[in-house]
Amino acid sequence: MKLYLSVDMEGITGLPDATFVDSSKHNYERGRKIMTEETNYVIQSAFDNKASEVVVNDSHSKMNNLLVEHIHPEAQLITGDVKPYSMVQGLDDSFEGAIFLGYHSRADQPGVMSHSMTFGVRNFYIDDVAVGELGLNAYVAGYYDVPLIMVAGDDRVAKEAEQLIPNVMTATVKESISRSAVKTLTPRKAGELLRTRTDEAIHNIKNVKPLTPPASPTLRIEFANYGQAEWANLMPGTEIEPNSTTVSFKSKDILEAYQAMVVMTELAMRTSFS
């Protein structure tokens, strides 16, 4: 059994705010260490359950956060930026299941450090379905007929996952008090939970169906201000919807929609507020 693991950072145990996930802040190195240890708990459980291969994709910010020298020696790590498929780089139909670790809720929902890719995005839509990073990434997995078998993070992303994917296993390592405060397990207790949930998710794999994306989806991104929409609209094939900050793109498949999302959000981040 070959498993894919996408690891974000905001949903990692004990991390309450941006000082732990921003490489320029004083708590970042602590956050990296906890993130790496947490990833190893899941990897070890996967191998204990006879996984033949585990591929880990570092999926936060510049995507070079995991400490490769401390990652489980039998895992393979995808690290660094730029990646054509960002948080799902390397995912294809050779995998039997996917696990999302350290995930968070989407931008328009409560939850610790909730957002959708960048802080200029209010909402992503695939056709008329509102999704965050979790949903977009799960759709890519579904394109390859790979089920998302487990999501780990705070209580809010667990709820988001359960609403989107029937029978998905969730591991709640912390509860959101506000967007920058949590009630959290300790890393050791979270590790015990993650090993147990990973074991259960692997045994439950046949009960989780892939999240199949629409055949030719329309990607719609609602931005925080019109300047961001103008930048995103520089990508060919896009249009700004009337009287809104929403930019739409009709794609041939979810892979094209995903890459369009990456390009549009990167362009939108060039907006100047001065």
From TrEMBL:
Coiled coil: none annotated. It comes from the Bacteria. SUPFAM superfamilies: Dipeptide transport protein (SSF63992). This is M55 family metallopeptidase.
